[in-house]
Each structure stands twice: as structure tokens, then as C-alpha cells.
Amino acid sequence: MRIPAGVVTRSMVVVRPVPGHVSVHDARTELATVSVQWGDVFMRFTSAAQVHTVLTAFGAAREALRGVQGTVPTEPSGAALDWPWVAVLSVTWTRPPEWSVVPQERFDTIQRRTIHWADVHMGPVLWRIVDWAGYEAALELLRNVHRTAVACFTDGGKFRTDPSKIDALTAAGVPA
């Protein structure tokens, strides 16, 4: 049996409420890493700046979610059947990623309404946020990762502020 191989330059992840796991290796050293398993996505961070940037991007997506439903079923009909394969995405951030948030919408003729979602373009990954349940679950996990990164990376003190929370004293929660 031949094993398929290829180079993927862009992957899309539908953000949904799935459990996550955070682990730390070599805390407070130059070799420190924070690993996050988030459903079928595995991310590895090597600095607090990287985590801060990812959390900033997701925090910025809040404005683009205007009109998005509370909960949307993200599994296709008949998803109860076991798939014979698993798609897993692994990303090692080597520097803070560049990102952009794009609000999206389209008219669904079957449901006769406009469907809204937000795309967060971040390096090789396109995060598609389709409902508030997935967004809140993502923020909860990423805020936990951010607190962990601040504690275990040597540059953590510079990125202590949570960029996903709007603060009246700073612009968009970013330190002055």
C-alpha cells in the first residue's frame, strides 16, 4: 500500500467547542516549549510573543462575528459513522504569525437567510469561526495557553496583558 505524501501550504480549521490540552517542557529556559492539542490540531509555541499574537488575532475576530449564531452543528449529516482516516494538523510557530480577520457572509437559498462567519487568516492556517460556542471555547483555551506562556517563557513578562480583553486604559488591551 502506498502512503500518500505532499506539501500542504494552506489548511482550514473549523473552530468548534472541542477539548484542549496544554503541556509545557523546559519551563523558564531558552528551550521552553508550550504544546497545545486542540481537537485534531496540535500547536507548538516557543515564545510568549507567538501565543500573544495568536490570542490577539482571535480577540480581534469578535467584531467580525456580528450576526453569527450561538451554536451551529459543524458535523455533516451521517457523521456518526466512523471515518477510516483521521486528518490532523500540526503547526510549530517559529515566530509570531501575521494575521488578518475577514468577516464573511452568504445567502443560503434553502434556509432563506444570510449566514455569517469569520475567517482568521494566520500563516498557513485559516481558522473559520462559524458560531459563538466555538469562539468562546477557543478563547477559553487560548487564554489558558497565554497564562501558561507568560509563566514559562523568558519573554513572558513583556506579554502579560491579555490582548483578547478590551481595556479602557490601553488600545485594544495591548500594552502601551
Strand content: 25-35%
Supply Rg. Answer: 17 Å
Order of helices and strands: EEEEHEEEEH
Low confidence ranges: none
Terminus-to-terminus distance = 57 Å
Which strands sit side by side, in order, in the main sheet?
1-8-7-6
How many strands?
Answer: 8
Sheet with the most strands?
4 strands, mixed
- The number of helices is 2
Helix content: 10-25%
Structural class by secondary-structure content: alpha/beta
Average pLDDT reading: 86
The tally of domains stands at 1
Shape, per Cα inertia axes: globular
Descriptive account of the structure:
With 176 residues, the chain is an alpha/beta fold. The protein has one domain. The protein has helices spanning 48-64, 132-152; strands at 11-15, 20-25, 33-38, 41-45, 89-92, 99-108, 113-122, 125-129. The strands form two sheets. Strands 1-8-7-6 form a four-stranded mixed β-sheet. A hairpin with a 2-residue loop joins strand 3 (33-38) and strand 4 (41-45). Helix 1 (48-64) runs antiparallel to helix 2. The longest helix has 21 residues, at 132-152. The radius of gyration is 17 Å and the shape is globular. The model has no long low-confidence stretch (mean pLDDT 86).
